[in-house]
Amino acid sequence: MARVAFLPHRERVEAAALAKRAITRLEEQGHTCVVPASDARLAGLDDWAVEDSAFPDALDLAVCLGGDGTFLRAVELVGRHGVPVLGVNVGHLAYLAQVEPDEMDLTLDRFLAGDDLVQERMLLEVLLHPADGEPRVVRYALNEAVIRSAGAHVVHLEVSIGGELFTTFAADALLVATPTGSTAYNLSARGPIVAPELKAIIVTPVAPHQLFDRSLVIGPEDEVRLELLGWRPGRLQCDGIDAAAIAPGDAVVCRRGPWAVKVVSLGRRDFRRTLRTKFGLADR
Fold first, then answer.
1. Among 52, 58, 143, 150, who pairs with 233 as Cys (CB 3.0-4.6 Å)?
2. What is the mean pLDDT of the chain?
3. Which of 39, 68, 250, 270 is catalytic?
4. What does the pLDDT read at residue 211?
5. pLDDT tens digits for 160-171?
6. Cβ distance 32 to 87 under 8 Å?
7. 68 is annotated as an active-site residue
């Protein structure tokens, strides 16, 4: 029997109701279900609450019910422990949570029966290299790392790839994304859409103030180094979360992470189906 975790969106009643229905069904089959205490209190699922610190222990699967934000939170909690994550879309615009509510039971049944539904997604290890200190890992990002000015100014960054200087960008921001993150901020910045099962790193300027305004798609083994130029401070964000202040002369290094995120999906068709749905392509 399996130990299954549920993380419902904290503000959507339908997510909590779906979680409770699935928990009841799984427990009737003999499985054990848990919910982080901080979520359980808000969702009315106190009967299955476990302390947040003990939540990732001995899990076979984590089910998040919400949008992409809920999915990213689940990855942050359990991803490094090798726990597969199943995203059920109870959001408005979800690329990560690809399984619809009416597919949840089927997907759970197939996964728990041993069907191979797990895909591995690369993530970024994001390091801060202070000009006057030792480098340190700041965060791991499934979608992207973004550097922008601390104020409403253009940011100037010297970009090196694979240890060699590439160019200097002047832009509103510069983002380094994974294939999974290609449909997040990268998409809004008119970067390329990359199939999520691929291994690659995408560098995309946001509103660049120069002639070269293209994205770059490079190999997964190349490190991307971004050094902040000028005198204005900057900010580093990872997956939409404020991660660190950057001083002039500091550098941010993005490289392939040491572990992969395991995502439960009904198949590669989910990504193409999601694109057709989001862009209204099926009727063209």
1. 150
2. 92
3. 68
4. 80
5. 999 999 999 999
6. no
7. yes
CATH number of domain containing 274: 3.40.50.10330
Give mean pLDDT, residues 136-142: 95
Question: C-alpha distances in angstroms, 125 versus 176, 237, 253?
Answer: 11, 13, 8
Neighbours of 106 (CB within 10 A): 11
The Cα 84–Cα 74 span in angstroms is 10
Could you tell me the pLDDT band of residue 268, with boundaries at 50, 70 and 90?
A: low
Strands 216-218 and 224-228: unpaired
Exposure of 187 by Cβ count < 10 A (0-12 exposed, 13-18 middle, 19+ buried)? middle
Question: Which H or E run contains 124?
Answer: strand 124-129
Where is 183: in which H helix or E strand? none
Q: Domain for residue 90, yes or no?
A: yes
- Assess contact for 192 and 182: CB atoms under 8 A: yes
Domain hosting residue 247, numbered range: 124-256
Contact between residue 218 and residue 200 where contact means Cβ atoms under 8 Å apart: yes
State the total domains in the chain: 2
Token pair of 238 as six digits: 């990872």
Token pair 């799984």: residue:
26
Q: What are phi and psi of 208, to 5 degrees?
A: -70, 145
Amino acid of residue 267: G
Question: What average pLDDT does range 254-265 have in this prediction?
Answer: 95
CB-based contacts of 75, cutoff 8 Å, min separation 6: 85, 123, 142, 261
Q: What is the largest CA-CA distance in the chain?
A: 62
